[in-house]
Write a sequence for this structure.
């Protein structure tokens, strides 16, 4: 699910988080990354949200983006996948009885459905969605963000000398690293937010963004996440089989409490086989968005 589409998918990705800029380059087979680099941002540079002014120092963000992309060998002027914070995008799952086949007509229906539930002008927002048609229903997974917010992140990439070919929310990007055939919960923990996604049969069936991220203790995180598991299992009649964690936290910090509350073994969202040896250590969980964007 992307805010823009190009016929050839970029082989370089850059994630902008409240604390870091992370860049990676895919290998030729697109099943792992060859290299990854991370640059730390000063506090207060990025304050993600649905209001404008997510970026509070455009120059420092531009420099970090430029430095990270140069370090992974990105060519100036080429398209890159831009991964933005979940807090800057609203992900909504909608069900319809029918939806027009023509894209412009479907856009109007989706925007109308969202108009009363979002705190910004839906008509002027950047919209992207995936449609899953069943025999008697249509499920739509929507990503929507105010135009000025999207422009802030795209501008940083353009001013660094690159083209934002695809823009995607962090957790949606990370799902590219997940085998979605089995009922699987993904937790993406970042500063200020924790996103909860559940996939099954290669479909996103639940998505929630909770307040509190790396500043929330593991017991509270486990308590906040558990109701989503119960809701999913009650709604779909199947049990969540796997629990994957990524983002700005280590699995060692959160695994004991999550395992105690859910009864499942917590695993890394990103497999070590997807990473170069130089990136398989301390920053592995933080590479989830970039890796998923490139291998998915």
């Amino acid at each position: 699910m992307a805010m823009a589409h190009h016929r050839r998918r970029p082989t370089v990705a850059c994630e902008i988080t409240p604390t870091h800029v992370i860049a990676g380059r895919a290998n030729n087979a697109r099943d792992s990354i060859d290299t990854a680099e991370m640059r730390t941002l000063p506090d207060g540079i990025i304050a993600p949200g649905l209001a404008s002014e997510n970026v509070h120092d455009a120059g420092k963000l531009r420099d970090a983006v430029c430095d990270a992309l140069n370090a992974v060998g990105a060519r100036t002027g080429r398209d890159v996948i831009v991964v933005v914070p979940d807090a800057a995008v609203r992900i909504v799952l909608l069900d319809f009885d029918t939806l027009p086949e023509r894209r412009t007509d479907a856009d109007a229906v989706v925007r109308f459905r969202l108009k009363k539930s979002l705190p910004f002008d839906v008509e002027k927002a950047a919209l992207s969605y995936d449609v899953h048609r069943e025999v008697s229903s249509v499920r739509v997974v929507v990503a929507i963000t105010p135009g000025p917010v999207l422009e802030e992140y795209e501008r940083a990439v353009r001013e660094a000398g690159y083209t934002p070919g695809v823009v995607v929310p962090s957790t949606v990007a990370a799902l590219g690293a997940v085998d979605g055939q089995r009922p699987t919960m993904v937790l993406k923990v970042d500063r200020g937010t924790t996103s909860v996604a559940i996939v099954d049969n290669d479909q996103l069936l639940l998505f929630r963004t909770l307040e509190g991220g790396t500043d929330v203790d593991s017991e509270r995180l486990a308590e906040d996440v558990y109701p989503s598991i119960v809701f999913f299992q009650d709604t779909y009649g199947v049990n969540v089989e796997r629990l994957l964690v990524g983002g700005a936290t280590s699995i060692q910090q959160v695994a004991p409490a999550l395992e105690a509350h859910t009864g499942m073994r917590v695993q890394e969202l990103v497999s070590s086989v997807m990473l170069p040896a130089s990136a398989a250590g301390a920053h592995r969980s933080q590479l989830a968005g970039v890796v998923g964007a490139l291998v998915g």
Notes: Residues 90-145 form a domain with the Dna Ligase; domain 1 fold (CATH 3.30.1490). The chain has a mean pLDDT of 91. The first helix runs from residue 58 to 71. The longest strand covers residues 203-211.
